[in-house]
Amino acid sequence: MKVAVELGSTATGDPAEMDLEELLSTRLLVQGNSGSGKSHLFRRILEQSAEVVQQAIIDPEGDFVSFSERFGHIVVDANRTPSELARIANRIRQHRASVVLNLEGLDAEVQMSCAAAFLNGLFDADRHHWFPMLIAVDEAQIFAPAVAGEVGDDARRISLGAMTNLMCRGRKRGLAGMIATQRLAKLAKNVAAEASNFLMGRTFLDIDMARAADLLGMDRRQAERFRDLEPGQFVALGPALSRRPIPVRIGPVETAGRSGRPVLMALPETPREAMQDLIFTPGADEPAALPEPTMREPQLATRELLERVSAARPAISTPLPVEEEPSPEELADRAEALDAIFAALLDDPDAAFRPAAVLYQDFTMHCRLKRISGAETDMSSFRRRLALARAGINEDTEDEEWRQVIARSEQLPEDMQGVYMMLARAARQAEPCPSDAALARAYGSHSPSRGRFLLTYMAERGFIACETDFRGQRVVTLAGSGWRTGAGEAKPRGGTLPPPRQRRA
Ligand SMILES: Nc1ncnc2c1ncn2[C@@H]1O[C@H](COP(=O)(O)OP(=O)(O)OP(=O)(O)O)[C@@H](O)[C@H]1O
Ligand SMILES: [Mg+2]
Asked: Do 170 and 42 belong together in one domain?
């Protein structure tokens, strides 16, 4: 018995039908420019067939979530790890549930990886669960792009592989792809070529029209008719539709998507000055600056250490023979001697890459030779001083804001504090954000990737926010102060700065 999906009506007013069983083995490709009615057409087909065939809707915009209320589809939030998505996909095949994979709000690259993991999970299901299933992919050019674009090669390769599997090898496993795209020229050829049914909507660009004509076996002049189609009108061809190309007008739908047609609205009559105010003043609900990172138990404050560095006092840790309090002159001499030892130490070009512990050994040796001992020569005081020196900060950090920044740096692991302070200094002076290599150097490492890791670490813990401007240059804002660096070096190709949120293993 033929199970037909009623698409709408033909030019003669007869019902236009699509044979569902035929569709399952011959797949469908829909093309039309933005606003031509592809999503509406998908909705019509999915609504009409929801009760008779299992469905999975790959939904980049969260447009089909309403299917859950009307038809009982399970909404799968895609913000999960790939293995979790694959396991869910597996269970979906086992239990024959209709689902919407909601990819709304994710970066294109993350959308591709999630959809790929999910589709591969459906594809790899146990042979016992190869029940027929309709897989709808709207905006298919996102998942099977014709050329490498902005997204990373890995994401593209994985996603294209999953779409190719769906369209080329899915049939035996019961998977029937129906895909829609705004621009045929943007869709990978091998993915488009596997569909035998076509619904072509309004198309303006010659290159898309030419590809549509090739796929449909029409000559280019005949394809000109795609320009004159109205929204909601498609030319249908294929074993599940019609043996000859026929125009079809798609019927109404029950559920609502989010994309309406834009309608003109009267513009507001706000005077220019008031409008300027509205645009340039942050609203009450907008955060003026990043919130303070949550503080741990305060440790010994840097400032205190700095004070100990500059105002030398005898060590308390080792019992020393009772000494006279040193005179201010002696103190000054000692501080000067310490400064000189420290400066000589850092003068060595390799000093930036030597571990603090090794430098400290040198330092204490020189201190012993000069008979200097005391709190200012202990390890943590030395580390702090080294961190500040590597960050390029002198001890003129007396104002309140600096004190707060220094206090915040205490919350980071000791070896990262210098890097944080380096960012702080650049942000304070609105200088360009330090390069990965410079950050790594302040950490004592040669490897620029270490610099990126440090930024991610601090961003994830709320100490800083990293943004990339339109030229791919990095800008860092210090949480808790409004300090912000200028644009730094461009992000390296294939670099992996935040967002870390969705990038789970
Ligand atoms: N057959 C139809 N009957 C009534 N309204 C329709 C029909 N087809 C489309 N529309 C309306 O036209 C508008 C655009 O349609 P739709 O969102 O389906 O376009 P689209 O091709 O998916 O565009 P995009 O590529 O930008 O997503 C929607 O408001 C939709 O309700
Ligand atoms: Mg659409």
From this structure: yes
For ligand 1, atom 16, name the residue with the nearest CA.
37
b/e map of 219-242 (b: 16 or more CB within 10 Å)?
eeeebeebeebeebbbbbbbebbb
Per residue in 3-23, pLDDT tens?
Answer: 899 999 999 999 999 999 999
Which of the pair, 414 or 185, is modelled with greater confidence?
185
CA angle, 19 then 241 then 46, to 5°: 55
Task: Indicate which CATH number applies to the domain containing 470.
Answer: 1.10.10
Same domain for 73 and 215, yes or no, is yes
Residue 369 in domain:
yes
Give 34 Cα–ligand 1 centroid separation in angstroms: 8
Which ligand 1 atom sits nearest the alpha carbon of residue 182?
25
Distance between Cα 39 and ligand 1 center (Å) = 6
Structural domain boundaries, residue 432:
336-478
Cα angle: 486, vertex 490, 492; to 5 degrees = 145
Please identify, among 218, 250, 282, the residue that sits at the C-terminal boundary of a domain.
250
Mean pLDDT, range 28-47, rounded to an integer: 95
**What residue owns the CA closest to ligand 1's atom 24?**
34
Total domain count for the chain?
2
pTM of the predicted structure, to 2 decimals: 0.62
* Count of C-beta atoms within a 10 Å radius of residue 293: 17
pLDDT 10s digits, 224-276? 889 999 999 999 999 999 999 999 999 999 988 776 667 788 888 888 888 88
Q: What is the mean pLDDT of residues 461-489?
A: 86
Give a yes or no: residue 421 inside a domain. Answer: yes
